[in-house]
Specification:
Layout (H helix, E strand, L loop, with lengths): L1 H13 L6 H14 L4 H12 L3 H14 L1 H9 L17 H10 L2 H14 L11 H11 L2 H13 L3 H46 L8 H23 L5 E6 L1 H7 L12 E3 L6 E7 L4 H13 L7 E7 L4 E2 L1 H6 L2 H12 L6 H11 L8 E6 L11 H10 L2 E6 L13 H4 L5 E4 L3 H13 L3
Parallel strand pairs: 3-4, 3-6, 6-7, 7-8
Antiparallel strand pairs: 1-2, 4-5
Helix pairs in contact: 1-10, 2-3, 3-4, 5-7, 6-9, 7-8, 8-10, 9-10, 11-13, 11-19, 13-19, 16-17
Length: 447
């Protein structure tokens, strides 16, 4: 019984339901109190203990119904006559036992034998959909499938109408047994493997080059970015005021206790003032860089609660604020419009910096983090690094995210070496994990 609950919790964890050790112990105590007999009560009790959100509750209920489905047949089977079960509660030990079991048509007894075979085959260790056929084969083998195959071959080698009829019966029996085993293996995959397979695909997508993503990956990336945003929001929204117990604020303490004859009943400690995050994102939307811009802006705009002061600009040559486009359109439609309107020109970083200087310089102050996403290739035009230097002096920090690998910086028309001295940090970004790391470091600077 304890292993049953442990495996269920493992299935929840594989499906991205966070279950702590303490919650697992609470679930064990709950089961010890109510038992496994009342399935509805057990489902509600475990749901209260293990699920902490509506989404997790939905996952819990789905897995509960899948995981405990076979337990009902096992419980019902315990009430059936011992004649329908194998000796000592084991799966059929011989071909004759298996054939007799299948010919009996007793679904309860067959299900019981199938569950014992599944346990013997280690069905709970299934991880990928490609393993379904393997575990189904192992379950059939545990039930005596090899012997059944031998009886089938003997019938096929024999002559006469009787042997042909028997062979067809055995073929149908083997097919039925295989389909039952496959259904059981698929259910086990839905419980134990589907979550881990999905997590494996998520990890692969998060480490895949953004430039290599195709349309098939987009929906998964949106889900991943939402998870990244939630993770960053949880990490950086809890900016508790840390009191430095080693530095007493004498002036404020005396003022707070002026009405108490100067007796310091209320002690006030020095607190470090923290700026609220303010980000100005300047994005090159020309060529292949536009694909990276899509994911950066989606991530930043998903962090609205953490970064309420966010300003986005896009350019290929002339720079333009795109906050209104992003605010008034669905994100994909907004990005299509931005790339269509601003991404078709010849790239000119110098002109972009000039537009920023003339029209938007006042938006940059000491709280501002400037995030530049681009490859720094300006078609051999004047990069106006003098203006870039001025922006860097006004801002809190300048972070440059370059989709090109480091060996390419400074080659051809790349002006990256001229901008590098004025950047707080310049890093290569190729994957979603790179973007997450960069945004995390930006927000950490305000902590």
């Amino acid at each position: 019984m304890e292993r049953t609950l442990t495996n269920f919790i493992r299935a929840l964890r594989s499906s991205d339901v966070r279950v702590s050790t303490g919650e697992a112990l609470d679930a064990t105590r709950a089961v010890a109190l109510i038992g496994y007999q009342d399935r509805s009560l057990l489902k509600d009790s475990l749901g209260c203990v293990l699920a902490k959100s509506e989404t997790e509750k939905q996952v819990h209920d789905r897995l509960f119904d899948l995981y405990f489905a076979h337990s009902d047949s096992q419980r019902g089977g315990s009430e059936s006559s011992s004649e329908t079960e194998s000796t000592d509660g084991e799966a059929p030990a011989s071909p004759e036992d298996l054939i007799a079991l299948m010919e009996s048509g007793d679904d309860t007894a067959i299900s019981l034998a199938m569950e014992r075979a599944a346990e013997a085959a280690g069905i709970d260790n299934i991880r990928f959909s490609t393993q379904v056929a393997y575990f189904a084969q192992q379950m059939v083998k545990q039930m005596g499938g090899d012997g059944l195959q031998e009886r089938l071959l003997e019938a096929l080698q024999g002559r006469g109408e009787e042997n042909e009829t028997r062979a067809q019966e055995l073929i149908d029996m083997r097919r039925d047994l295989t389909m039952r085993a496959r259904d059981r293996a698929e259910r086990a995959f839905d419980v134990f493997g589907a979550g881990e397979t999905d997590q494996f695909r998520n990890d692969f997508a998060a480490e895949k080059r953004l430039s290599a993503l195709d349309q098939y990956d987009m929906e998964r990336m949106k889900i991943l970015i939402a998870k990244v945003a939630k993770r960053l929001a949880v990490k950086h929204s809890r900016r508790r005021r840390k009191r430095n117990r080693g530095q007493l604020d004498v002036r404020r303490t005396m003022r707070a206790n002026a009405g108490l004859d100067g007796v310091p009943f209320n002690v006030i400690w020095r607190q470090k003032k923290r700026d609220r995050p303010k980000i100005v994102a300047i994005c090159d939307v020309s060529g292949s860089v536009a694909r990276y811009v899509r994911f950066l802006l989606l991530l930043l705009y998903s962090l609205a609660d953490v970064v309420p002061d966010l300003h986005a600009f896009a350019f290929s040559n002339r720079l333009r604020a795109v906050d209104d486009i992003l605010d008034n359109n669905e994100f994909e439609a907004a990005m299509t419009k931005i790339i269509r309107d601003l991404g078709m020109g010849s790239t000119d970083y110098g002109q972009a910096w000039s537009d920023l200087k003339v029209d938007h310089e006042s938006i940059i102050d000491r709280r501002t983090t400037i995030i530049v996403l681009g490859d720094g290739r300006s078609n051999y035009g004047d990069p106006r690094n003098d203006l870039f230097q001025q922006f860097a002096q006004r801002a809190k920090q300048v972070i440059w995210l370059n989709p090109e690998a480091r060996p390419l910086w400074g080659t051809g028309d790349s002006a990256i070496p001229r901008y590098l001295p004025y950047c707080t940090q310049m890093s290569h970004v190729a994957t979603l994990k790179d973007l997450e790391r960069a945004v995390d470091e930006v927000l950490s600077a305000y902590g």
